[in-house]
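I hope you will forgive my troubling you with a question about protein structure. Could you please explain, in whatever detail you think fit, how the structure tokens follow from the sequence? Thank you for your consideration; the sequence and its tokens are set out here.
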Amino acid sequence: MTRGWQITVLALVSVSALGAFAWPLVADVESAQALAPVTAMTMLPVLLLVAALALDRSIANGTTVALLGVLAAVATVLRALGTGFGGFELVFTVVILSASVLGARFGFLLGLMTMVVSSLLWGGIGPWTAFQAFALAWVGAGAGLVGRWSNTMAPLTRRRWIRLAVLATYGVLSSFAFGALMNLWFWPIAVGSGTDISYVAGDPIAENLRRFVGYSLVTSTLTWDTVRAATTVVGIALAGDVVLRALTRAVTPRSTLPRGDGTQTRRSTVLDEVAVPPIARRPRVRA
């Protein structure tokens, strides 16, 4: 599958998945209230599989495959260590920093794999798993796009510090967005009827959205999401420079040929970057 088709499939899958997240705002007819969440929970795993199959060729490079496995394992362990500490999650730091170097498609796969593998290992499989996997995959994809933008916009003399500041800002925004997405699909199920923050089937979208904002503020935005955002900023500030340098070095292969043979080392072959054609070997001129 070509890169253009991969992006098209991923866009269609993401739009469909977003509809599954937002079913309380889409299924505004009372008769659809019982069917909509079941449909959303059923379609998300299928969409995850489609996205993974569409992007499998994006990790054809051996170095990228190895990095994906190692980083997913590290993020899985860090997610387990942060479970139960009220939003203390280092997994966002790993996904954002990795995707900013390795690209949006790599970040999508890293977020997806981290959630699925960690849920399988630590017994967290449930109807929420596919929602978590998609939400973190979007965080990774967004970090890849932000990383590319920061590379092209920041001056060379200050690029490192500006890049870290941009990634930290993105970490804050994505932490709150992740919390809001995870609240949205579960909100009608978690809250009973008859309260000011209850979902009311058939009400206008604006009214239900107002109730949802109130629900999010009370349940996660001021607590879990804020702690997650602060943890991500601290993680990027402390480890960002070292991790970015290490990942950049890992995907930039060095020439194994002796010096002076007229060859030039190419940059990374990660598919999200522009491929650089090999430079032909120049013949030596003998006296």
User: Anything to note?
Assistant: Residues 54 and 158 are 37 Å apart (CA to CA). Residues 61-250 form a domain with the Arp2/3 complex 21 kDa subunit ARPC3 fold (CATH 1.10.1760.20). The two ends are 51 Å apart (CA to CA). Confidence is low (pLDDT under 50) at residues 260-276.
